[in-house]
Design brief:
single chain, 225 residues, alpha+beta, NADH Oxidase, seven-stranded antiparallel β-sheet, two-stranded antiparallel ribbon, 22% strand, binds flavin mononucleotide
């Protein structure tokens, strides 16, 4: 094969790979979440009493309204005039992105449009953690810091602030789950290199924590199988 033909073959292969990647995201459609219900819920003191970690999940899918309310509570926009969020962030960098791993694929939560933007038409739930429940629970959130939004902070400060900012979001999820009777666990035990590769993250994007959410496992569920 001469040089020209080699270049043509190499270019064709690159185009095929690019087309496959584009197709994978194309197969998923954006999910415009219903308007979040921002009223009601349990009183704050009750929610604080009930907040706890649970690792027993039902595989039952979460309805879009629950997803909508959960993501708004996690880090939605609560002051539209300024675009500020339910969770604080250092310097208002808003550097934490919430990736949403569902059975049908991976999405990115866009707080401005309150939409799930398609990322990959692949079920990545099993890769979001080493614990057995992660693959069957309906939802795993992956908190990813985009360090390119963190100005000129030192690397150590970027580590510290992105971890702190993730903690606030995670606690919002815990409180929402306590209010709604949902089960949740935040998880540091994640194979970050493997998950970052599967999620096709850029080098400046760092996985901080993951968090599983679902209905509590019904004690009769195992017996029914
Ligand atoms: C930063 C962080 C990382 C955690 N990582 C894991 C984890 O990888 N797996 C897990 O099952 N629980 C994990 N947890 C949950 C803790 O084990 C749990 O919060 C702790 O046992 C206290 O229980 P409580 O949340 O019910 O108060 C983590 C919690 C935090 C705050």
């Amino acid at each position: 094969m001469n040089m020209y033909m080699r270049k043509v073959v190499a270019l064709s292969l690159i185009l095929v790979v690019m087309a496959q990647v584009a197709l994978a995201a194309d197969e998923l459609k954006p999910v415009v979440l219903p308007k979040p219900q921002t009223e009601g819920g349990q009183p704050l003191m009750q929610v604080l009493k009930d907040r706890h970690t649970s690792r027993d999940f039902s595989p039952r899918k979460l309805p879009d309204q629950i997803l909508s309310d959960l993501l708004w509570a996690a880090d939605g926009i609560n002051r539209p005039d300024t675009g500020k969020r339910t969770a604080p962030s250092a310097v208002n960098w808003q550097e934490i992105d919430i990736y949403v791993a569902l059975a049908d694929g991976l999405y990115l939560y866009d707080a401005k449009t309150h939409t799930l933007e398609p990322v990959l038409a692949e079920d990545l739930r099993a890769l979001t953690g080493g614990q057995a429940f992660v693959k069957d629970a309906p939802l795993n959130l992956v908190y990813v810091a985009d360090r390119s939004r963190m100005g000129k902070a030192s690397e150590a400060d970027k580590d510290m602030y992105s971890a702190a900012d993730t903690g606030f979001i995670s606690q919002n999820v815990y409180l929402y789950c306590a209010s709604e009777g949902l089960a949740t666990v935040v998880r540091g035990s994640v194979d970050r290199p493997a998950l970052a590769k599967a999620m096709q993250l850029r080098p400046e994007q760092r996985i901080i924590l993951a968090q599983t959410v679902g209905y509590p496992k019904d004690e009769n569920e195992d017996k029914d199988k």
